[in-house]
Amino acid sequence: MIISSNFKPEHLKNIPFVAATDLYSFEKHEAGISFIMIFQKLKELLNTVGVEDFSLNDMLFPEAKRVKRIFAELAAFINYRSKETKHFESLLENNVIFWTFYII
Length: 104
What we know:
This protein is mostly helical.
């Protein structure tokens, strides 16, 4: 589901829909297409870090509590990845040193 249960029909009144005047004009749809593409990439990233319920509502009507949770999940993932990368690099370096001495 793209739109969460917090969505209300009156929210649509705040979104201008000028694109309906010319459905075949790319220029009028360009901003909307870009927005949806950003949303899809962000949803994919957040799903990877553990935020599986990210929706359009989070972008259109952000709530402080949700934004804080999302940033906390991102920070935790960045911290984890940084530690794992350092560990992997040290293992790789030790392995290269081992194989360098083994071959010589």
